Amino acid sequence: MTVPAAAAAPSVDWAACQPEPGDTPEDIALLPGSECATLTVPINWDDPAEGTFELAVARRKAQGQRQGVLVFGPGGPGDSGVERIRTGMSRFSQRLEDRFDIVSFDPRGVSRSNAVKCSAALLARQPSPILKSQQDFDATIKYNRDLAKDCRQNTGPVYDHLDTLQTVRDVDAIRAALGEQRISFHGSSYGTLLGQQYAARYPQRVRALVLESVFDHGSATTGQFLDAQAWAGQDSFDEFVKWCTTATTCALHGQDIHALWDRLLARADRGELPDPQRPSYPITPFQLSFVTFRTFYGPDWARLAGILKQLDQSAPPTQQPPVPTGLTSFSFVTFCRDFSLPVRDYREYAGHLRRLARDNEDLRYPGQLLAVSTCLGLPKATNPQRNPKPYDLRTPALLINSLHDPATGYNGATSVARQFARDGVLVTYRGWGHGSYTTSPCMEATVDDYLVALDVPRRGTSCAAVDPTS
């Protein structure tokens, strides 16, 4: 039998990245040096006969003595890696820019890579994840299925193949197209799942692996997933309260923040609390919790204190937001392909809500509650959570995480570190926020030494916190 020759790796035709609609003058000024291209990849790596689509990629060449390629895995799901290269290179130190071709991409279903598109009017009717009855539960399942049908019709067949295992194959196609035997990889937040699964499938093709703000894809139940996420959010809220108690610059200094928060949630539940960015329109309890949760990413405690004070003194909203038209992006479908978080019925869902409220004084509605409700009633995950087999990496992975990370809690980072065992080392930033590489000189130097010189830190290494308000 004749063995067919291996297909030649596709090439990448780079060209200078061009201004795009929505670019500001500041964005355009940052474009020089960035190169953009597309790479043709299968819609379904398990059955390439289903067709292809164009994956958007971007890079900046090493400015000094080139050491290799550093691929950046964007978070989200839904973040644009191409935009990171075009206008967001402040994410990387000059040392890394000197030594590496820094490459990233828009993951399948995101932005320039066959973005998931859905009817904006339908997406605007997405139910609140704070379900109050079996009728709400059933209506959410029907809505999710209607939305999935709509998005599939407006996106095309790529919609059916958006799990991270497919994206792993896309990353390896990028590596092959670049002519590299091995790559260094830096994943952030949800991009750490991509890094974990790439290393599991292609350990021999990984030179170095940085996982920043580590996303745990271990075999957790729905309750364990929600509890871990709520714990991280509440921990960050507690840190905000501690700061406000001692900092006279806090707009709520001297006030009972827990009581104020309860008042705001009650007003939001009655439809009497305005959206801080659009005061004419109401904000729901979940939306209020999510706005607060996002301020912890920095963290930006001073801004949060100002928002909460403004809301406590606000007048009720006067109208409902208009119904949007046309199509809009919705990349969250990837999460439902990567996680199996089943809930049988409203009784079980209500039990989760009661437990979250009992165990978390303030952020009883974690942002990831929407992740669970958004996936209700959808087909089974194609890439469900599970503990990986040994990684067998040449160089142990470097995991970095803030002690007080609101989105990827420190408990998740320690869990993934246990999964890596001898193939990974966790370095702790003893501070706050989602992301730590750019937070302190110590963290930056630790990551840079690892990527440039393969200098693996000792186990138990940590970096001191930097005051986020300074």
Automatic annotation (TrEMBL):
Q: Which InterPro entries match?
A: AB_hydrolase_fold, Pept_S33_TAP-like_C, Serine_prot/Carboxylest_S33
Query: What positions does the domain Peptidase S33 tripeptidyl aminopeptidase-like C-terminal occupy?
Result: 372-463
Protein's UniProt keywords contain Signal: yes
An annotated Gene Ontology molecular function: hydrolase activity
Q: From which residue to which does the signal peptide run? A: none
Pfam families per the UniProt record, alphabetical: Abhydrolase_4 (PF08386)
Domain of life per record:
Bacteria
What keywords sit in the KW lines?
A: Hydrolase, Signal
Annotated Gene3D superfamilies: alpha/beta hydrolase
Protein family: Belongs to the peptidase S33 family.
The name under which this protein is listed is Alpha/beta hydrolase
Which organism's genome codes for this protein? Kribbella lupini
Q: Lineage from the top down?
A: Bacteria, Bacillati, Actinomycetota, Actinomycetes, Propionibacteriales
